[in-house]
Amino acid sequence: ILTTILQFLNEYKKLFIYVSLGLLTKLVLNIPLMYLFNSININAGHGATLSTILGFLVTIILILIHLHKKIGVDYTNTLKKLLSIIFACSVMVVVIIILKNVLPLNVESRSTSLLAVAFLSAIGASTYLFITIKKGLLTDIFGNTVINKFEKRRKGIKNEEN
Q1: pLDDT digits (tens, 9 = 90+) for 84-130
Q2: Domain-terminating residue out of 71, 86, 103
Q3: Of 138, 153, 96, 154, which is closest to residue 120 (Cα–Cα)?
Q4: Are residues 65 and 97 in the same domain?
């Protein structure tokens, strides 16, 4: 999307430079990160993945800075929402890791592994959903209309039970 915006603004040269710098970042970091990860007994492929992510980040950050300077895009609200999403994801990951290490989940067969993954996924999704609702992110992302529809359904189900 960001590259399309720069193309729309006829900023082809800047786009080429930013994408090239991102690619250069990936190429420069790829092998050193693979060696680093391998030396600390982590799959070397993760180093290659990290270099790709960092290359994309360089490109994205450069484009965002350019858009801020060129047309005055304000990222304050976006950054706040991003930090809230990162917080919710982090809590979800911590909850899943704790549950995985505390609960005696039998994962010796495919069927029990599938059940364990389904259980942990449900707990993780519930945790993430709870935090996003409490922080108001769901309303920010989907708007009041969608949230109101879900609340009407929930209230309708409660009324049917009574």
Answers
A1: 999 999 999 999 999 988 888 777 888 888 888 899 999 999 999 99
A2: 71
A3: 96
A4: no
Helix (H) or strand (E) holding 147, with range, is: helix 137-161
Locate 148 and state its tokens.
């109101």
Contacts of 116 (CB under 8 A, 6+ apart): 105, 106, 107
Tally of domains in the chain? 2
Domain that holds residue 134: 76-161
Is residue 135 within 8 Å of residue 156, measured between CB atoms? no
One-letter amino acid at 155 equals K
Please check whether residues 82 and 63 belong to one and the same domain. no
Q: From residue 86, give the alpha-carbon distance in Å to each of 38, 102, 132.
A: 28, 24, 11
Q: What is the DSSP letter of 9?
A: T
Write out pLDDT tens, residues 20-75. Answer: 999 999 999 999 999 999 999 999 999 999 999 999 999 999 999 999 998 888 88
CA distance 132 to 138: 6
Identify whether the C-beta of residue 4 lies closer than 8 Å to the C-beta of residue 12.
no
Last residue of a domain, one of 71, 106, 121: 71
Phi-psi region of 72 (alpha: psi -120 to 50; beta: other; left: phi over 0): left
